[in-house]
Queue: 3 jobs
Job 1
Amino acid sequence: MKKLNLVGMAYEKDAVLNALQRTGAVEVKLHREEEHSVPLPPADGELSSYHASLEDALERLTQAADAYAKEHKGAARPAKDGFEVSYEEFMAAAGDRARMDGLIARVNALTDQKAETRAALAKAERTFAAAAIYRTVEEPLSAYTGTAHTRVRLGTLPLPAWENIKGMLPALSEGKVLAQEDDQVLILLVLHKSCAEEGEALLSGTGFTPCPFEGEETGSALYARIKGECEALAKELDALEEEMAGLGSETRTLKIYCDYIGYEAEKAALDEKMRATERTFLLEAFVPEDAEEVVRRELSEAGTVYLEFSEPAEDEELPTLCKNNAVVSDFESLTNTYSVPNAREMDPNTVMSVFYSVFMGFIMADIGYGLLMMLGGGWLKYKNRGRKGGLGALAGVFAIGGIFAVIWGFLFNSLFGITLPIPTVLPNAQSDMWTFAGIGIPAVLVIAMLLGIVQLLAG
């Protein structure tokens, strides 16, 4: 690892940072205090906030387009991560701001409109469900009101409750069922004022729900109107979802633009690690030795800079760069869960990959389950090809573990837990015991201990 010290003109800072980014081999570090220089002011966070709003809108658009495509066969699906983008296309995203801002504004507006329409539809559907039992009423609902000497109650209650109270109604009252919907009945109860309180007492506790509707509409007209409102809102929601899904074709461009803004935000955040004079900026970074010439070439084309490569000081904390083949690199994320390897020490990932796979296979030790691990892990690895780390790396580890599970399965003579009728190489993992100093110890435990000793000796 080499240390890069660079001094460049302030007006060329952006071009220099772009050149360093193209190499993919530079990690900027906090610059030491330097005489006649001051720290650059930190970024105001505006780009980071803008980037967060882009990611939020992108997620909304992707989810909406995905959901629409699942419900409508033949609809285009949004672009998935992992597609290739040239450097020129990536940097050209800077010119898409006006179009992307318009797209984001439309996505946010559609999202809000969908939420409002969905809420209105849910409310209308609840009203529609409540109005269903009134659809046979052909008189205006306002007609069911009391007079000077009577009190009228129109509403619904459970059928069993009505059966219980109808025989106990006061003498000066009349009640009848106007309609029935499942186990609910619509009743009309007319009470004389002299026994109104007695009738109300009977209704209390029965689950009686007074008619929630008012006005001159009949029950049937009310039902038809609310049904029409529900249908209109459903069509409006479908149109909004269709328009949102149509914007899904822009997800690829939006992803690129979002990544570009993220890159610009990262560049802005680097200011707090650099220092500056009146006309120049000062930068320190770590560069892998084999990338020194590439960095020199890119910087020479970026502008007028002074640069120097030197050996890092002994007390400097170096970044860790692991260089492993495709198989071992999948195990790097597992190693990092324990501790990121020290850049000045040996890379433990190769040893880790061997023993982790051996022990994973030993845990399963079955031909059938090992094959399933190989197939499942291999399929997930293929689906996540092109993505470094994450699920793809874990899938690769799982598939390698499956290979060793098959090997151990042959050694233990096991296929989906069934002992095969062929000679076994190792003792029966379930029943065989080895005796030490007169003590019976399961053979599988002894084998595991021996493997552990080998791992400890290997470091």
Job 2
Amino acid sequence: MEVPPSIRSESATLALFSKNSTPPANRQAERRAAQEQVFLREVDDALREDSTLALFKRYGGPAGMAIVLVLAGVGGWLAWTNHVATLTGQRGEQMAIALDQVEAGRYDAARTSLAQIAATGGAGFRAASQLVTGGIALDQHKSADAAKAFGAVAADGSAPQVYRDLATVREVAAQFDTMQPQQVVDRLKPLAVPGNPWFGSAGEMLGVAYMKMGKNDQAASLFAAIAKDKSVPDSLRGRIRQLAVHLGVDMGEDPAAQAAGQ
């Protein structure tokens, strides 16, 4: 799901909410955007720190469910079927049934249930069901099927943008080894910029694509920017830092080594 970002701190988010000079409609839009940014940062942190359980306890609803389950794979479904069952409405019940089927290893039945949700639900549930379908395919090592499911969400203009961007990152990741480097650049360059929730995740793949194209200077510059971005999770920053150093970037002393020496 990341998957990442140069994002406002929660204190900055609170400051944003307090701007009384901003029209109410704009404040509401800014609030949603800021909360979405914080959420995506925590999704990526949780994924990389293997703490998706804590994230689920904080966020409910199909958005949190679909994004984190897809990012984390299809493990751990059982812990959340009861939570999903509390979602309001028939679609929530259908999603809970689909997740029960996945947990039981009944993937064919789950795909049928998810397809029904996608066909009859609103844009959010449709995108969520397709993301989960893609996650199932990845778990079964069916990269082409996963890419197709993620691609459908990425191309759905009615789906929430957060779902579409996540789907783009996941689609590229699912078929990265078979894509031409320029294709990776075309898909991920718009997301691999400071301030975007997927800066780190998209930037890592974009940088590798640059390296495949012989554009090591561009890769090095991008890796250095990600490694220095303190809003990117430490585990990803550490990996990117090594790539930057490999390309000749002087990153100074490793912060992790400094901390270990204290």
Job 3
Amino acid sequence: MCIGAHLANRELFTFFIRLIVGFKILGPMNEADAAITDGMEVNALPTALVVQPKKFKCRFEPRNLEDLELWIENSRQRAEIY
């Protein structure tokens, strides 16, 4: 196992939590671009051993714009140190 696996796991966890807390994840404006939820139609490669979903679109809307701007500014300040 890689020495950095635990750090990578925590970084991914932090990224996804920030994404979920910071944004509403919504369907696309055009229904033709929506995700396919039918279990038989979802696979882009029908002969594959595992499911590879067909491409779809989604939208991200900030839950709270003020908090989001504060997070971005704090991240920018921390990055300037390095």
